[in-house]
């Protein structure tokens, strides 16, 4: 067997095996270094997988030598590859930036356990993407969720406890709904392999247990993806988590749930002609409401992290609106926006983490004139904000433009959706400009005492700032040269719509 066929297994096995070893690394910095090295290994494997996928391969790996559908199969195609790049890239960047931040927020004796949980979160997320077994998706979902609860609650802010409790309850409900749906499908088909399941469900798609199973799977994954109005866990979880955890989860956490949701709807339930139409008609209004309502809430939010958290809910709406078009161009735009939003929101939360090194209070008003003492961070926030809005020359513009083109293909009704996209982008201009105006405000005598103190401190060049500048540069690069993610997104669309296993 070609060594490349082992790459999907390495994505899962290496972080899983490294996690218990990390616990033993007690000296300060060793746990972080080992975790970061593991994350970069995972990122390198993702790049190698993407190269093979672009060459026309689909990677399959039979665990234990048992062939599917009897055995458990790992399988990576273009849709899997782009999500793997998002997960591993987010993990690597957030960890390289996390050294000083984690030292300030996590006690030395707790850091090995914290970083072990981080590796388990990586293993769980990539496992959900590479496995071709419906029950294993649930197993990896629980691994990533439990590790995520630990990461969010790991900081010194005690407000994380009620946020994590809400996340735990809603996450458990979502996982339970998904498991019930999978159980009902298994009852009707006798298989858990996704490819085999897609074949066996043909001919029984109109039977009530299958229809109910589709509803359970959709609701469970919508909870995990924070689809409006099932997003109530997300704002507090992102706001009160340690800053680097927010960077990691905001970039990839909900994207994996969206991946599984789209994989089920277009691969397993692809023969449900009427079901897919109902899925689109049900999903589209929720996506549009999420875009408008979450954007409006972000407009009036006074805390920087909460503002960006509600912005993430709106961006999930963009992703799912593209999927609800049920077209090749719509799913291409949806997949591309998953990649570009990960870059954009990762950069914005990295900027927030850098602001937090000098400003304990992340309320927008407390950042007045911050550009004087943190010019590079402020400028990076501006560029990332432009990408979030969708200004030409940034990654955010490419996916929004693709989405608008896909909407226009739908006919006259598309003008309404285009109007919503434009209105939401204008609202994004409002809340991003509110922050920029504060950062670059002319200093006055009524500045808070803490702002006056930090104004004389030069901006420290550290790994966090370097990671921020690199991520912003990638936003510009993929805005000017979008070939890699666009090609993977186009291949993903063909796979989902044509069910090419």
Structural commentary:
The chain has about 500 residues and is mainly α. The protein has a domain at about 285-500. Helices cover about 75% and strands about 0% of the residues. It has helices spanning about 5-25, 30-55, 80-95, 100-105, 110-130, 135-150, 160-190, 195-200, 210-225, 235-240, 245-270, 275-300, 305-325, 330-355, 370-375, 375-390, 395-410, 415-440, 450-455, 465-480, 485-500, and strands spanning about 60, 75. The protein has a two-stranded antiparallel sheet with strand order 1-2. Helix 3 (about 80-95) packs antiparallel against helix 5. The chain is globular, with a radius of gyration of 22 Å. The two termini are about 20 Å apart. The model is unreliable at about 450-455 (pLDDT under 50).
For the structure shown, list the relevant keywords.
globular, 74% helix, two-stranded antiparallel ribbon
In a nutshell, what does this entry contain?
The protein contains 21 helices and two strands. With 501 residues, the chain is an all-alpha fold.
Question: What does the secondary structure layout of this molecule look like, with pairings?
Answer:
Blueprint: H1 7-23, H2 30-54, E1 59-62, E2 73-76, H3 78-96, H4 99-105, H5 111-130, H6 134-152, H7 160-189, H8 194-200, H9 208-225, H10 234-240, H11 243-268, H12 273-299, H13 304-324, H14 328-356, H15 370-373, H16 375-389, H17 395-408, H18 414-439, H19 449-454, H20 463-480, H21 483-498
Antiparallel strand pairs: 1-2
């Amino acid at each position: 067997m070609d060594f490349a066929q082992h790459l999907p297994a390495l994505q899962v096995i290496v972080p899983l095996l490294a996690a218990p070893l990390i616990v033993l690394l007690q000296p300060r910095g060793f746990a972080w270094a080992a975790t970061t090295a593991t994350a970069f290994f995972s990122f390198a494997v993702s790049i190698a997988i993407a190269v093979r996928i672009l060459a026309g391969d689909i990677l399959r790996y039979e665990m234990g030598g048992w062939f599917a559908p009897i055995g458990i199969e790992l399988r990576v195609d273009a849709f899997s590859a782009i999500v793997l790049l998002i997960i591993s890239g987010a993990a690597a960047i957030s960890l390289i930036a996390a050294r000083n931040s984690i030292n300030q927020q996590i006690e030395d004796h707790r850091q090995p356990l914290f970083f072990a949980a981080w590796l388990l979160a990586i293993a769980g997320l990539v496992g959900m993407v590479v496995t071709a077994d419906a029950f294993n998706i649930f197993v990896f979902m629980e691994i990533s969720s439990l590790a995520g609860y630990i990461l969010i609650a790991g900081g010194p802010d005690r407000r994380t406890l009620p946020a994590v409790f809400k996340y735990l309850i809603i996450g458990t409900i979502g996982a339970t709904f998904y498991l019930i749906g999978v159980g009902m499908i298994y009852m009707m088909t006798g298989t858990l392999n996704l490819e085999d399941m897609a074949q066996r469900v043909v001919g029984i798609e109109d039977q009530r247990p299958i229809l109910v199973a589709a509803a359970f799977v959709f609701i469970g994954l919508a909870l995990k993806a924070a689809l409006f109005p099932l997003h109530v866990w997300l704002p507090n979880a992102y706001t009160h988590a340690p800053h680097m955890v927010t960077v990691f989860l905001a970039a990839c956490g909900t994207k994996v749930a969206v991946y599984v949701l789209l994989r089920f709807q277009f691969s397993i339930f692809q023969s449900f002609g009427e079901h897919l139409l109902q899925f689109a008609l049900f999903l589209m209004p929720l996506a549009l409401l999420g875009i408008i309502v979450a954007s409006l809430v972000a407009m009036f939010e006074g805390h920087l992290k909460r503002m960006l958290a509600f912005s993430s809910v709106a961006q999930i709406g963009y992703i799912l609106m593209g999927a609800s078009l049920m077209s090749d161009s719509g799913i291409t735009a949806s997949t591309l926006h998953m990649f570009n939003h990960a870059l954009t929101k990762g950069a914005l939360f990295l900027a927030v983490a850098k602001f937090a090194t000098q400003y304990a209070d992340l309320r927008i008003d407390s950042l007045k004139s911050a550009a004087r003492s943190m010019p590079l961070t402020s400028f990076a926030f501006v560029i990332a904000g432009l990408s979030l809005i969708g200004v030409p020359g940034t990654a955010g513009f490419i996916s929004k433009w693709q989405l608008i083109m896909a909407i226009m293909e739908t006919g006259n009704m598309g003008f309404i959706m285009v109007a919503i996209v434009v209105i939401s982008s204008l609202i994004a201009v409002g809340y991003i400009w509110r922050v920029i105006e504060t950062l670059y405000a002319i200093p006055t005598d009524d500045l808070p005492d803490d702002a006056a103190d930090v104004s004389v401190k030069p901006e420290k060049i550290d790994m966090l700032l370097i990671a921020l500048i690199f991520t912003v540069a990638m936003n510009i690069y993929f805005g000017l040269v979008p070939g890699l993610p666009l090609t993977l997104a186009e291949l993903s669309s063909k796979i989902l719509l044509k069910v090419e296993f």
